[in-house]
């Protein structure tokens, strides 16, 4: 009977001693480690604790605060504090009985021995895991421009530390420049416009308009005109050369089209790259980011990934990945059924805009239909009665059905003729029990 019990428990007697060896997996609750405390990591913590009350949850992150990166510009403008952009309660980790190792940098992952090594307070520590979720996010991508990495008062806008440094320096600057006209660059611009004392703000880009990946020329020009009215110097289609530094290494200007543009503070917003340095030598496969399947599993057993580290670009998808990964870690099979990334919602200068799918047609085979009335602008890009891209600026009512059409590639007969006349009623039906049912 005892031998049978030992076999069930996986207990093996050693050959040279009378001691018994119990596999670690049979001792106590499992330990799940999560690297990163942003959107994907936080939703993973909530999901794991909901599904398993006994599991040990350990979160390791560089940050000591949980906050929304989408709202960092509000910290620059001082409309919100660090706590004001926290998207969970301050005691979130305690409520979910999770151990949070803050201000720690993961240096390597030993997948063979199931251990994570990290540095904290100048010391190297190791944390064992039964299952691991990598949600380490992304870092700012800095372009290969001379002096841009070495210069002082040059910042990306990726972390709370960046926002605070930009805010404090901007209070004492007359001239500020931004490289990059995408969402992050425009966020930074919006925050800086709220700071008194700045005499000149310039934003420069190689593209022919701001927000070129999200908006067409018409929608982008509405924002550009508003910014120009505020005194912003928008420089498009330009060649950005070296960064000029003074004798003390402080930024003094940027070479734009062969001429010096003076500035005392430079913000670099030229995209992000997944933070995958920590998986080097681990055997975990990566391309643009860590490669995962529909269960958010990597190629290594018991290792999962979610969020920006996988190349994901938007918050909603990162949170979905966090939930899917955590569910499968806890033994509840769940699949990622929605990988749609091409949705952007913005509100600059009090003008709301939603951009869906690919808003620039690839060739002449697409139908492009536009609508303007007052301050409202709409644009539909259609291919073979399928909506492939959509912009609505101003009145963004009924954006929901269009998001479903783009995401699900729904074919609607003669779509170009009625695309702006669609509403929720076209896509909902009522079931026998009286509930509404989405039909696309």
Quaternary status: single chain
How far is the first residue's CA from the last residue's CA?
A: 59 Å
Q: Number of DSSP strands?
A: 27
Radius of gyration, whole Å: 26 Å
Provide a count of the helices: 10
Q: Can you describe what's shown?
A:
- This protein is α/β, with parallel strands linked by helices.
- It is built from ten helices and 27 strands.
- The protein has helices at residues 2-9, 39-51, 72-76, 92-95, 160-170, 183-192, 217-229, 315-329, 399-408, 415-418, and strands at 12-13, 20-21, 31-35, 56-60, 98-101, 105-110, 115-120, 123-128, 131-134, 138-140, 154-155, 175-179, 200-204, 233-235, 240-245, 251-256, 259-262, 265-268, 272-274, 303-305, 343-348, 351-357, 367-373, 376-383, 386-393, 428-430, 436-438.
- It has a five-stranded parallel sheet. It has a five-stranded parallel sheet with strand order 11-18-12-13-14.
- Strand 21 (343-348) and strand 22 (351-357) form a beta hairpin.
- Helix 2 packs parallel to helix 8.
- The longest helix is centred in the last third of the chain and has 15 residues, at 315-329.
- The radius of gyration is 26 Å and the shape is globular.
- The protein starts with a helix and ends with a strand.
- Residues 4-27 have low confidence and may be disordered.
């Amino acid at each position: 009977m005892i031998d049978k019990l030992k076999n069930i428990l996986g207990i093996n007697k050693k050959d040279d001693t009378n001691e018994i060896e119990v596999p670690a997996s049979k001792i106590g609750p499992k330990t799940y480690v999560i690297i990163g405390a942003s959107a994907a990591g936080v939703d993973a913590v909530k999901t794991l604790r909901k599904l398993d009350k006994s599991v040990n949850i350990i979160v390791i992150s560089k940050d000591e605060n949980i906050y929304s990166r989408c709202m960092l510009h509000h910290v620059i403008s001082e409309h919100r504090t660090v706590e004001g952009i926290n998207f969970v309660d301050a005691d979130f980790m305690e409520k979910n009985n999770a151990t949070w190792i803050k201000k720690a940098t993961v240096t390597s992952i030993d997948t063979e021995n199931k251990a994570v090594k990290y540095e904290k307070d100048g010391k190297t520590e190791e944390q064992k895991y039964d299952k691991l979720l990598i949600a380490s996010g992304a870092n700012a991508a800095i372009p290969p421009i001379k002096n841009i990495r070495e210069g002082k008062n040059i910042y990306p806008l990726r972390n709370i530390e960046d926002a605070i440094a930009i805010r404090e320096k901007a209070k004492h600057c007359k001239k500020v420049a931004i490289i990059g006209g995408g969402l992050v660059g425009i966020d930074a611009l919006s925050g800086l416009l709220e700071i008194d004392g700045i005499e000149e703000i310039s934003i420069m880009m190689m593209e022919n308009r701001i927000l070129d990946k999200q908006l067409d020329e018409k929608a982008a020009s509405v924002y550009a005109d508003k910014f120009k009215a505020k005194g912003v110097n928008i420089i498009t289609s330009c060649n950005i050369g070296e960064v000029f530094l003074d004798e003390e290494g402080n930024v003094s200007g940027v070479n734009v089209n062969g001429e010096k543009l003076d500035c005392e503070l430079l913000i670099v917003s030229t995209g992000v790259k997944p933070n995958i340095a920590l998986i080097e030598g681990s055997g975990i496969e990566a391309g643009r980011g860590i490669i995962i399947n529909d269960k958010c599993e990597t190629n290594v057993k018991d290792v999962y990934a979610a969020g920006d580290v996988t190349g994901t670009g938007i918050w909603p998808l990162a949170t979905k990945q966090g939930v899917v990964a955590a569910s499968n870690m806890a033994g509840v099979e769940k699949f990622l059924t929605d990988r749609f990334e091409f949705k952007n919602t913005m509100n600059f200068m009090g003008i709301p805009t939603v951009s869906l799918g690919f808003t620039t047609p690839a060739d002449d085979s697409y139908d492009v239909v536009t609508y303007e009335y007052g301050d409202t602008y709409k644009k539909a890009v259609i291919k073979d009665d399928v909506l492939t891209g959509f912009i609505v600026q101003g009145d963004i009512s009924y954006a929901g059905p269009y998001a479903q059409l783009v995401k699900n590639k729904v074919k609607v007969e003669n779509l170009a003729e009625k695309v702006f006349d669609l509403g929720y009623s076209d896509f909902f039906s009522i079931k026998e029990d009286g509930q509404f049912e989405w039909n696309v």
